[in-house]
Each structure stands twice: as structure tokens, then as C-alpha cells.
Amino acid sequence: MRKQLSFPTRSSRLALLATSLGFVLICLDVTVVNVALARMRDSLNLDSTALEWVVNAYTLAFASFLLSAGALADRFGARRIFAAGFAVFTCASVGCGLSAGAAMLIAARVLQGIGAALCVPSSLALLGAAFPDPQARAKAVSIWAGTAALALGAGPLVGGVLVDRFGWPAIFLINVPIGVAGIWLTVAHAPDTKGHAARRIDLAGQTLAVIALVGLTYAVVESGRLGWTGMTVLAGLAVAIVAGGLFVMVEARHAEPLLPLALFRHAAVNVSALTGLSLNFGYYGLMFAMSLFFQSARHDTPLETGLAFLPMTAVVTVANVASGSLTARFGYRLPMVVGQALAALGYLSLAFVRVDSSALAVALPLLMVGVGVALAVPSINTAVLTHVDPSWMGIASGVLNTARQIGGVLGVGLFGALVRPEFDDLAEGLHHAAILAALVTLASLVSIVLGLRTSGSIVTDDRARRLSSSPRE
Which of the four CATH numbers 1.20.1250.20, 1.20.58.2190, 1.10.3720.10, 3.30.420.40 does domain 12-189+256-467 have? Predict the structure, then answer.
């Protein structure tokens, strides 16, 4: 009979609690904002493009600064950067709640994204330091992701209640007590990783990354209003391509690059990044599109919208924990495959949902998507932590999460262009968006099957990683 794993020390448990609170804060914000979109639109007189920017301003800043945040965690220590991210996010949440117009709200959302970017890579680095045993680490990562999944699950319902009873600003102000508790817990109890004082910040790479992602986001978001042939949309795409190309050139020559290209010599890193992109592309895009579909086409209240999302989000925690157990026993490849297959099936089923569809007909596809995504998330994090040298965990987790957030930006932008409240047939737009999500997910599934030749045993692969040289060597 296999002996159950236990957490090594009290400090490890407290580190897990601190990092989980940080991820809870970030993920709670994602789902509650989607439920409040219609009320924000009416209260602040926002159009569809402004609504997309409210969502994407956060995600864009998150994606843009994740890599630098990982480097900062490696240089100054994960605990210091993690606490700083908590503080920025909490203060920005106050700014969001007090916003009186689109400009202030979007600016505060950018600051929230920067705070979130500081938190996520350092949280994974803290977990790597607190749980050196690979199997215990897999369990810890699954719990870390599971608590965040709990926030995702509770977010629509909590958001619906808050918006209905207290108005949309309450969804941001609820972050304040969580943030204060997380900051105190991190400073008082979380262990730290060793800082590398020689690690330099790649300002040129960071600047080019921001320019490229802003150009891409602008083109995708504005394409819904101007069309793909609009001059400013084409200009945004051109800026993204040029800046992206220059970014690769700079990173290839930089002594301390923002994105060490040698990281991509591991198939597990490449596949995990692509899988993460596809996960957020479908999930974030679906949350945005379905929220508008529920409230603009079916005329549901925010609370009813939150309840409609519950089948997709409520099962996430259980599936996350199950994924950790599967990963510890069979390796990370199996949860990836099963998860992506389920998610693709769920997206395809949404292509048959109509405005007058029953609650069950809507709930079942959302349930498949929720379980599928939740199975895959812990396994991709474990795959990256397993294959990367410990001194590069901050940057590696930043790469993975950057890919995920880019997927979210693209999903919200493209789905928002297909499902706009001023369109006559929102259901048809939702069908096109669901099919697009299914195709991207299936492409990721093919990359997993072809790119990961082994099951991904965390014990065997962790030993292999320790014996191999780090990317900087």
C-alpha cells in the first residue's frame, strides 16, 4: 500500500497558503469582472470595445511583465517580489473600485496586471524552494492551482451577488482584505529563494515585448470595430511583427536575456507553453463571450449569469486535485491529453447552444470545459518545474504564464469581435467562437501527443533535469 505524502514542515504549509492566497486574488478577479461587464457598460456608458479593454488591459499588463517579474524574483528573491506584487494588486483594486470612467478603470486594471505579474512567477519559485521532493511538489502545485480554481469557481456566484446587491465596484474592493492577509502571511512566514545579484534586467527586451504585445492586442481588439483591413489594425499587426522580430534578435544576443531561448530546447517547455496558450484562449474568451450572451441575449441578471457559470467553475477544484494525483502517479502527459480532449468536446458542444436552450443543454458543455481545463493546468506547471534548473524557475514559470496570458488576450479579443451586444444574432457569433476555441484546443492536443513521447514521470524527468546543464551554461 502506497504511503500518502505529507508536507515536510510547517513553513512549507505556510508557504503553500501564502502562494495560494496570491493566486486566489488573481483568479478571483478574472471571473468576477466578466460577470459585471453588463453593469459596467450601463453604469459607465462603455461600448463593446471599451469592455474588451477593461478585460484585456489587465491581461495585457500581466502578460507583458511576467518575464521581467520572473527575472526580478530570481535576482531579488521570490518572497520580496511576491509581497510587492500583493501590495500593487491590492492598491490597484481600490483604484478600480473608485473609478468614475473608462480611462481610470482601464489604467487601474493595468496596475492590477502588473501586480499579478509580480505574484505568479515568484509564487511558483517559492513552491519549488519549499517542496524540493518532486512528488510532494506535484501535490503542492495541484493544491496551489486548486485553491485558485476554487476562486474561479466561486467568482461568478460571488460576483453576481456583489453586483446585484452592492454594485460593480464591490467586485474589486473585495480584493482588499484578501490582499492585506496575503501580504502579512508572506512577510511573516513564507520562505525565500536565494537571490542572484548578478542577474540583470533586460530593459530592451522588456520594452520590445510590451510594444509587440500592445500592437497585437490593439489589432485584435479593434478588429471587431474596424475590421481586419482597417489601417490602424494593420498598423498594429505590423508593429507587433516588427517588435516581435527585434525582440528575438535582442534576446539571442543579450548576455542576460529576458527570455533565454535555450529554455525552448526542452520539448516539455514548448508543449506546456502552447497548451497554456490554448487553455486561456478558450477559457478566458468563453467567459467574456458567454457573459455577454447570458446578459444581452438571454437577459439574465448578474446573479443568474454567475449561477449559469457554476457548472464550469465549481468542478475546477476537484479536477485540479485529481490532476495532481494523476500526475504524481502516471506523469504529466496523461492529464494534459485527457484535459484537452474534454475541453475540445465541450467547446464543440457549445456550437449547438441557442438562446432558448435549456439550462442543462448549456451546463453540460461548460462542465466539460471546466473539467478539461482544470485537469491540464497543474500538469503543465509540473512539467515546466520538472525540466528547468532551479535557478531558472522564476523565468521559466514566467514564460509559461506569459503564454497563457497571451492566449487570454487573443481569446477575449477574437471572441469579443464575434459576440458583440449590438449584433442581432449573438448565438451565431458564440457558435463561431466555440468552434474556433475547439480548433485551437485540438491543435494543442496534437502537439502534446507528438511532442511528448514519454508519459512524463516526475521522478525520472526530475533526475534527468538535475543531471543536465542549466540553460545559461
Answer: 1.20.1250.20
